[in-house]
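Before our next group meeting I need something from you. Please put the record directly below this note.
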Amino acid sequence: MFTLVVYDISKDKDRTRLSKALENFGLNRIQYSAFTGELNPHDRHVLLQDIRKYATGEKDSIYVIPLCERCMRICEIIATEDISLIDDSKVKVV
């Protein structure tokens, strides 16, 4: 399932380590503190267990948000270039 991860981490070291961990799970950076990608339920569970250690500050937060295909299709992105959350060549319409 498509997954969106956004975070606000106060310590530079923890923030850098978290971004590397997200990349290691195959997620792609879409904003400075936001990543997206496909994760199956097991990998998402493992990711959740792994990244808890990076939220150490009093106001730190990490959101791991699974998105269904419909949510991805109706998502509105405002940007100076053409951006889509999904690659239509990989989408199977049933």
Notes: Residues 2-90 form a domain with the Alpha-Beta Plaits fold (CATH 3.30.70.240). The first helix runs from residue 12 to 24. Strands lie at 2-8, 28-31, 34-38, 61-67.
